[in-house]
Amino acid sequence: VIFAFRLFASPEAPKEPQKTVYNYSLVGLDGKETSLAAFKGKLLLIVNLASNSVYQDQIAALDELRKAYADKGLVIIGIPSPDFGGTELNDDSAIRKYYTDKAHVSFPIFAHATLHGANEIPLYRFLTDPKTGLPGGAVHWNFTKFLIDRQGVPLARYEVEQDPADVDFHVAIEKALAGTLKKKASEEKSDSAEGDSDDDE
């Protein structure tokens, strides 16, 4: 008796869609969750804030940046965090009073959050994991800036020393808005916000 066997190729498992920042949410100062999918199609600049930091002038610089490029699609997202030297408030009502009444910022400010360690919020685990986000490791200090392209994919990371008031930073934002800024491998050793990396996204 001859038995004939037909081999069938097992179907490939469908690939999971690439994660983006749109898979994550932040808690607002009102306690309600906001999905970052609400900002689809926008260029995002996600920044951890600190109102008592020696770099607090960057808060006003970020607001000026928003005013300059909001009509072109830039959205700045501020996340206060007391993790770095205790230089931020940890009470959301006090945070609201500071950023609204004193700093008069016009970009969205979310509730204070833990941005490193065991209780790091999921968004920052995504942003700081080189497999899903950008190299550079855990956030080192206040005013670390993550630039996210219009598809929700992390594009560049800028450390605290890279001031959003600098001309080079404005040039990088303009390139990102135009879709011509190349993905950066790391911004830690960059001498300017634009950087010298030629790695394509």
Describe the secondary structure blueprint for this structure.
Layout: E1 25-27, E2 33-35, E3 43-49, H1 57-69, E4 74-80, H2 92-102, H3 122-128, E5 145-148, E6 154-158, H4 167-178
Parallel strand pairs: 3-4
Antiparallel strand pairs: 1-2, 3-5, 5-6
Model description:
- It is a single chain.
- The relative contact order is 0.17.
- The strands form 2 sheets. The protein has a 4-stranded mixed beta sheet with strand order 4-3-5-6, covered by helices on one side.
- It has 4 helices and 6 strands, in the order E-E-E-H-E-H-H-E-E-H.
- It has helices at 57-69, 92-102, 122-128, 167-178; strands spanning 25-27, 33-35, 43-49, 74-80, 145-148, 154-158.
- The model is unreliable at 186-201 (pLDDT under 50).
- Strand 3 (43-49), helix 1 (57-69) and strand 4 form a beta-alpha-beta unit.
- Helices cover 21% and strands 14% of the residues.
- The chain has 201 residues and is an alpha+beta fold.
